[in-house]
Amino acid sequence: MKTAAQVLREARELISDPERWAQGAWAKNAPGHSVQTRAPEAVSWCAAGAIYRCAGNSDLSIDTRELLYDVIGSNISPDSGHVIAEFNDTHTHAEVLEMFDRAIALAEERQL
Description:
5 helices; globular; mainly alpha
């Protein structure tokens, strides 16, 4: 299984170009329709979708989700990716990338 820091770095890189970042869906195809996060036709992702795509075939670790909740400042259960998607949909691309930067630093600090 990938470490939390690895998943977060890969997800940040995936959406680092605004053309590959989506709002309103976890993943979108070229015409802008919602698709599965790991669908071959996906060309853009929200923060949550990018994390799930980069987690690969393994389940996303609780550590990874908890890091993001710590960074976002949410007390919502880490069993749901909805708060991450909500943050993504209500903030700018730059703010989402900053969220990833803080989460990556926290993952590295905690050696996760």
